[in-house]
Amino acid sequence: MLKTHSEVFKGLLLVSDLCFVSMAWWFAFVLRFHTSVFVEAEPYVLRHYVTAWLVILGVWAVVFELCDFYRPRRLSTHQHETVELIKASGLAAMIFLGMIFLLHELILSRIVVVVFWFASLFFLSLSHIFFREALRIARRRGYNLRHVLIIGMAAQADALLTRIKAYRYLGLRVRGIFLLDENENNAPKLASDAERIKNPNQLAEMVRTSEIDQVFVALPLEQASKLPEILEWLGDEPVTLHFVPDLHELATLGGYIEDFDGLQIVTLQSSPLTGWNAALKRGVDLAVGSLALVICAPVMAAVALAIRCSSKGPVLYRQERMGLDGERFEMLKFRTMVNNAEQHTGPVWAADDDPRITPLGRWLRHWSFDELPQLINVLRGEMSLVGPRPERPPLIAEFRRTIPKYMLRQKVKAGMTGWAQIHGWRGNTSLATRIKYDLDYIENWSLWRDLKILAVTVVGGFRNRRANGL
Questions:
Q1: Which of 120, 124, 121, 9 has the alpha carbon at shortest distance from 74?
Q2: Comparing 399 with 169, which gets the higher pLDDT?
Q3: What is the pLDDT of residue 470?
Q4: Measured between alpha carbons, how far is residue 97 from residues 68, 69, 110, 242 in Å?
Q5: Average pLDDT, stretch 237-256?
Q6: Segments in 210-275 forming alpha helices (H)
Q7: 260-295: per-residue pLDDT in tens?
Q8: Cα separation of 395 and 390, whole Å?
Q9: Which end of the chain is flanked by fewer CB atoms within 10 Å, N or C?
Q10: What is the signed CA dihedral for 43, 46, 48, 51, rounded to 10 degrees?
Q11: Measured between alpha carbons, how far is 44 from 51 in angstroms, rounded to an integer?
Q12: What are phi and psi of 465, to 5 degrees?
């Protein structure tokens, strides 16, 4: 029955997608030849466009099927599906262009082809979003459900149950639970009224009699050796089996799973700012950083003049800091202390009433104007507008010995402002809390979050109530 339902959904989605692809093709055709959006319409042969449309239907249907685009996606996300849609559509477009090249008698407008591809992506993405939302509404109302059996240790099973209950739109109903660490003297309480199975020999029978669709095996990593035994308990029942390893203690940053010629590789630690993300972030740094430097130039000139007139020493203070992947660079700041302030003290945090800070310097720190020269570091590529604040190598050597995961901050460029700073954790404040905010920023990075941090900094972040630090 499940397979029949899956085939019905697959067929409906395929027909729906081909309808939207057709809509995109004829939308591009009408836009090019029957509107005034583009230059005066050139002559065209309708038969050529009808033939191309039939070729498109065949190519898109075959490519989407070969890419397994219509497999069940109950546990997937909109973002992942959109990425796969772009890849499949790109492959289909290349095959289509190759076939058109071989069919010399077909003459098509390049504008129609380009507009069609972008329109097809938009229409298909929109249709899949609506389809998914319709399924989610149906599942919340008790339709299109999947019956689940959970096998595992109590802690991991409870965490899985909590998530299944939180995401009701997935349509997963837990029918049975078998805990490997449950015995007569130990009956863990779980957030579920599902049947508790006591004997592993009953698992296969429950799968058959209770119409179990999916089995989740939730285990800590050190218990993964129990998988073969669990598979024996289940026998050869044709059920979807998911392994949910508890990698929380090992996966520290940006973990993901990828396929290497059939071998599944679990990456426990990586940076999200690679590839297009890195290029996008760098583009924002250059555009916003250049604009900010132009706008702040008069203020920076006035500050430089004030420093020169109020105390002896250079206007700019250059200090070695550590950035991306541990690389060192000279960070620029307006000088706020007396010249050679660390000659006798060495690298130490400044106190609230530190006598080394000049009167003008205290005001600059209070309003964070001393940080403005770091816009030059941003344009050089040594820093970013947003990211963890850079620290000095001697202090980092100490921090990494006492603060777990401290060096993971170096997986991204240091920033002028950051997630920790807009929450008030800057200067001489709790390092452990700052690290927590920094790692949260890296793990959940997005361009939207960067823009939000910049907006909060500009609107209310210039005034620094913890204006200590180095």
A1: 9
A2: 399
A3: 42
A4: 22, 21, 11, 40
A5: 68
A6: 227-234
A7: 455 555 665 666 676 677 878 888 999 999 999 999
A8: 11
A9: N
A10: 160
A11: 13
A12: -80, -15
d(CA 220, CA 75): 21
Structure-token pair, residue 5:
């339902």
Give yes or no for a contact between 28 and 116, defined as CB atoms under 8 angstroms apart. Answer: yes
Residue 46 or 9, more confident = 46
375 by DSSP, 3-state: which?
A: helix
CA distances from 26 to 31, 107, 436, 462 (A): 8, 16, 52, 53
Contact 370, 286 (CB under 8 A): no
pTM: 0.53
pLDDT score recorded for residue 374: 94
**φ, ψ dihedrals at 3, nearest 5°:** -65, -40
**Cα pseudo-dihedral 51, 52, 54, 58, rounded to 10:** 140
Query: What 8-state DSSP symbol labels residue 343?
Result: T
Q: How many CB atoms lie within 10 A of CB 47?
A: 10
- Tens of pLDDT, residue by residue over 387-405, are 998 888 888 877 877 777 7
Q: Fold for domain 146-250?
A: Rossmann fold (3.40.50)
List the structure tokens of 458. 């500009």
Q: Structural domain boundaries of the chain?
A: 2-140, 146-250, 276-460
CA distances from 295 to 76, 201, 372, 460 (A): 44, 73, 11, 18
DSSP letters along 401-446, please? Answer: HHSTTGGGGGGS--EEE-HHHHTT--SSS-HHHHHHHHHHHHHT--
Contact criterion met (CB below 8 Å) for 144 and 137? no
Alpha-carbon distances, residue 223 vs 163, 174, 201 (angstroms): 21, 22, 20
With b for 16 or more beta-carbon neighbours within 10 A and e for fewer, the 371-407 pattern comes to: bbbbbbbbeeebbbbbbbbbbbeebbeebeeeeeebe
Paired tokens of 420: 């920790």
Residue indicated by tokens 């899985």 = 160
Structure-model confidence comparison of residues 30 and 69, the more confident one = 30
246: helix, strand or coil: strand
Q: How many CA atoms lie within 13 A of 426 on its CB side?
A: 27
CA distances from 43 to 40, 114, 115, 252, 291 (A): 10, 18, 18, 60, 47
Q: Which residues of 457-469 are buried (b: 16+ CB within 10 A; e: fewer)?
A: beeebeebeebbe
**Phi, psi (rounded to 5 degrees) for 22:** -60, -45
CA contacts within 13 A on the Cβ side of 347: 11
- Whether 74 has a pLDDT exceeding 70, the answer reads no
Pairing of β 172-179 and β 195-196: parallel
Mean pLDDT (whole number) for 1-8: 52
